[in-house]
Structures are given as structure tokens and as C-alpha cells.
Amino acid sequence: MMLDIKHATLGDILTVNLTGQLNTLGCGQLGEVLDGWLATGGSNTLIDFAGVTYINSSGLRLLWRHHSLVSSKDGLVVFSSVHYTIFQVFDISGLAHLFQFANTFDEALGRFQPPSADAPAEPA
Length: 124
Hints:
By secondary structure, the protein is an alpha/beta fold. The protein is 39% helix and 28% strand. It has a 5-stranded mixed beta sheet with strand order 1-2-3-4-5. The N and C termini lie far apart (50 Å).
């Protein structure tokens, strides 16, 4: 199965919706999207995994590389709607701790918002 990639920008965030298998073939396509975003000066990236049915080491490597490049630009990468079986691949590979995971797209989007000025301060 091919990887279907839909992407758009919301302010300073690249949103990517994936459907299918994130394997060697799909990595080429996704890599072009992610590298293109970085080339324009973008960094913040939200990747929605709701439709992802498979990920292999090539997919993990691409995501780790993108995360490293974004982190070096003080950006943020958040994954949303990751199915448990896909999360297990991140966990078993030892990479889960590097990434931020959110249950929904909206929750992931909220990770990019600066705290509201009206929000109470965090206790020290």
C-alpha cells in the first residue's frame, strides 16, 4: 500500500496527514515534504498518524532525522493519533522518549500554542 500524504500550513506549523504504510517507498515522498518545509525556514511540525497502518526502520530514521533538525532550530515535532501498534514500534526501538505524542490532532495543535497570559502561573 502506498503512503498518501496531505500537508498544509497553519501559521508557523506544517501539518501532515499520513494514510498507509510509512515504509522505504513512502519515506522518499515524506522526506521531500519535510525537507521542503525546513528549506523554507519552517520548523514546527505536526504529523497525524491516524491512517498509518505500518512503520519500518526507514520511517523511524526519517522521523528521527526530522526531529533532530527541527530541534536544532528550536522547533517542535508532535505526532497525533498514533495507533497503539505503531506506538509500540517507537517504544521498542527506544525512540518513543524523543517524540511528543498527542491523542488527537487538536491536542497536538495545542502543544504549539504559547501559554495564555490569563493562565495561572505554574507553582514553583
